[in-house]
Amino acid sequence: MTHPFLGRSYTMRSFILMILSLSFFTAFAADESVPAKPVKFGIQTFKAGNDEFIALNFENFPHWHTYWKNPGDAGLAVKNVFTVDAKEVKFDEMEWPAPNRFIEPGDLWAYGYEGTYSFFYKLKKADFNKLNGKTIELKSTWLVCKHICVPGQMITTFKLAPGKITTTTPDLMPEYEATVLSERFEALPRVMPIPAYLDLRLAKGKAPNTLVLNYKVAKTTDMSFLKDNNLLYAFPQIPFDVKHEKVTAGTNELTGVTEISWDGEYQTPPQDLPKDGKFKKPYTLRFLFNDPIERKTIVIEKKFSGFDLTEVAVAAAATTEAPPADMGGTPIGPTETKTIVATSTNSIVYYLALAFVGGLILNIMPCVLPVISIKLFGLVKYKNESHKTILRHNFFYTMGILFTFITLATVVLSLKSIGSQVGWGFQLQSPNFIAVMVTGLFIFALNMFGLFEFRTPGGSKLGNVSTSESFGGDFLSGVLATVLSTPCSAPFLGTALTFAFTSSTMEIYLIFIMIGLGLAFPFILTAVYPKLVAFLPKPGNWMNTVKKVLGVTLLLTMIWLLDVYNALVDGSSHLIKLGTILVFIFVGFLLSKKKEKWIGAASFLIALGVFINITTTTIVASADEQTAMIRDKQSKGLDWQPWSEAKMNDHKTNQQVVFIDFTAKWCFTCKVNEKLVLDTQAFKDLVQEKDLKLLLGDWTKRDEVIGSFLRANGLVGVPAYFIQKKDGTLVNLGETVTIARIKEYLN
Q1: Does domain 39-188 bear CATH number 2.60.40.1250?
Q2: Fold of 198-339
Q3: What residue ranges are annotated as transmembrane (predicted)?
Q4: Which residues contact 717 (CB under 8 A, 6 or more apart)?
Q5: What residue segments make up the domains of the chain, in order of their start?
Q6: Distance from chain centroid for Cα 615
Q7: Which of 197, 295, 302, 481 is deepest in the core (most CB within 10 A)?
Q8: How large is the angle between the packed helices 431-448 and 597-616, nearest 10 degrees?
Q9: What is the pLDDT of residues 549-573, one digit of tens each?
Q10: Fold (topology level) of 625-746
Q11: How far is C-alpha 294 from the geometric centre of its chain's CA atoms?
Q12: Radius of gyration of the CA atoms of the chain, in A
């Protein structure tokens, strides 16, 4: 027998079994192991001519990479610090080896090292005299990445003598032959004058607060030397934030263009991009130049006193699109590189599995529990019905979830296409969206209380034992479950979402669909195997009582959203209007079955009018809301301060350890973490013991600065927790914290 929506039942079952098989396959394939020792380390002396050097040798596990001085879009550079009696000792550091370019999932460009490589520090006669017989401590730290990133460090103690290093530190690599180190030393970039065939110019960008670096290499179009490399790598230089390079081949020349974000507004004091094109003081920018003519890598420097005011637009890098019309020629170099994850089955499968598991965990998050409870209530309703009926109801619930996730993915892509930064739960930063949700939940709750009846996921009358084909209600239940799940960031979900929000169109849709399948998975299982719900009690009159309890849970969810709404708007006026809407809706339903139906109809019209008013009126966000949240935090006994990168830099300068909490009023997971960890006496004792400085980033309202910071550190939503150590090292703790985990990174 054929159903008008589902077709043959065996086809539907085959479809669901296929989904289950894919889900289990992705979960199995995601189990990529992390090597026990992803980075090996060694130390030795090395002579080049009459000079002697300390050589620090590294060997990365195959396909894992560490980072250069400029790590790229994300990452942390390798850091080596020598100390004697707890005081830092400086040796003359040679240029670092030339890095390679790695394009990571989400089109993130990283600059760093794979395989084996060495750093060199020159020793002077005065160093031997000063340090003779003294114990030197070397602390090397790094971040090594493949499908995940793992921070690592090695503390080595040694004594120095001419031609010899004595160390008792275990687990060091064997020393290399002198010829190996000699080859690495000779390959180090050297500071050279800018070649005559290289032209560098700085111009104003079309995007606000941006510059564009234009460069041309005459006399060649050969890019074979630049395999997995940029033509130019920029050394870190505040306030210049250098983006992706795009290179094209013209007539007998190579043309490069790179956008630079001006980060002067984040400095202390702020430095605006000069409108006249002249810097207050010249900036000397250093670059690694992979010379395609001489076939070697050199370090070049150029002093810029200002920039050309003729605006230059930069097309997106790392794409296969044609170059801008004014450039001419054919895209080469980075433009031919495809995003690794787009062609790597293992990588995309890994993120799909994380998305699925994260979506599955959403089922037990407090945001979704009211709707999940209603759906479970519906399963009780259908318990004694045919397998086909259960299958159809759960199918429409799943379709509601998938439809909403596909809609969210489409909205994300639309916002990205106009250059807007969005994150997980972005719709809950919209007062109008919250107003719609509050109104909808209130109507659902009135239905649960029996004030009126319409088809819901459990039927038109939830206490009735007879079957009701309320497929529309099942679909809407899936929509509501999805919408309420987005304030939650479950374990595993953050990594998958970061990948999705920074990936291509297909990958965004795949990740969002897999999260939806995870959220719907328990009901997909019960559709295939109805006996899994055998433990649920039989339908009966008790369901009328439970129905009212579920109505209360919806009201509690609505109250939470009212609090979020108040945080987003000037509550004195808009909150009163939203309350007025709810009152007139209640009156409308109350009188809809009585003789005064016209009064009920008028109440609905008034509610509709006020609703149109608040959703079409410009809403001004409360200017003091962040201060109110800080005051609330401080009232609990801890000195939380508003987050900013300037404050992070101040604490770094003062060598103070900082704990950073990015949160939002609409984030349930944040609230759970606060109750279980951040509001406890154990955390207060830890703050006092370690003299932690506390910074709070409030993302309740949309904040581009916070969004950019989270994205730069591999996150697209809250909660997010960080520790900034005394030396400025930033440790990303992810979405969940414990006292033990915080202590681990404070030591």
Answers
A1: yes
A2: Immunoglobulin-like (2.60.40)
A3: 348-374, 395-413, 433-454, 475-502, 508-529, 549-568, 574-591, 598-621
A4: 423, 424, 425, 489, 494, 497, 710, 735
A5: 39-188, 198-339, 344-430+453-541, 625-746
A6: 30
A7: 481
A8: 160
A9: 777 877 877 887 787 777 677 556 7
A10: Glutaredoxin (3.40.30)
A11: 40
A12: 30
